[in-house]
Design goal:
Mean pLDDT: 91
Helix content: 55-70%
Radius of gyration: 21 Å
Largest sheet: none
Strand content: under 5%
Length: 189
């Protein structure tokens, strides 16, 4: 059951789903596996070159769609952009209340980067990680409230969702930096 993926097919269309914020990850995974079983290039090894190439395109398109939809930030980014909301480069600010926390988190990260492994500044990173994970969960909840149900194209909720996405990207980067510092500490042990 090969198909010709359209250049403008959405991740939702490729996996036969309606565009929504709330995704059942296990159903999404099952949908990918169903499509993969029907289109995987290994099943077309004896087919002609055009069919093998089409199978590769089908598989790549399904995997890319799954990657987008299974990641909360990528899915939200796609939903906001597809509904005419601001793209990442068009609106860079974050929710106002979040900005003061960002300054404190940046200071703690800077202190930890400058400190030796095992120092009190580095030891505070686990508490900071917990705080950031809490902030991430709260921001995801606010983002979900902006996107469920999906706003009308061009609605103000799309700009608010973009601001939450900006905050979530910051938190994700900060968590990655904490993990890198943790690994650095482990390497020196």
């Amino acid at each position: 059951m090969l198909f010709r993926p359209e250049d403008d097919a959405t991740p939702f269309e490729l996996l036969g789903l309606s565009p929504v914020w709330a995704i059942d990850r296990s159903a999404l995974r099952r949908r990918l596996l169903t499509i993969t079983r029907l289109t995987h290039p290994d099943f077309f090894g004896d087919a002609d070159a055009d069919q093998r190439e089409l199978a590769e395109r089908n598989s790549a398109a399904a995997n890319q769609a799954h990657e987008t939809l299974s990641d909360d930030l990528a899915r939200a980014d796609w939903l906001v952009s597809s509904r005419g909301g601001p793209r990442e480069g068009e609106l860079r600010d974050m929710p106002q209340a979040f900005l003061m926390e960002v300054l404190e988190w940046n200071e703690a990260l800077d202190d930890a980067r400058a400190a030796a492994p095992g120092s009190p500044a580095r030891e505070r990173l686990s508490a900071l990680r917990g705080e950031l994970e809490g902030a991430r969960a709260a921001a995801l909840e606010r983002l979900g409230a902006q996107l469920e149900p999906l706003p009308e194209p061009g609605a103000a909720a799309l700009a608010a969702a973009r601001r939450e996405l900006n905050a979530l990207r910051y938190v994700s980067r900060a968590l990655e930096q904490i993990e890198a510092l943790r690994l650095q500490r482990a390497d020196k042990s």
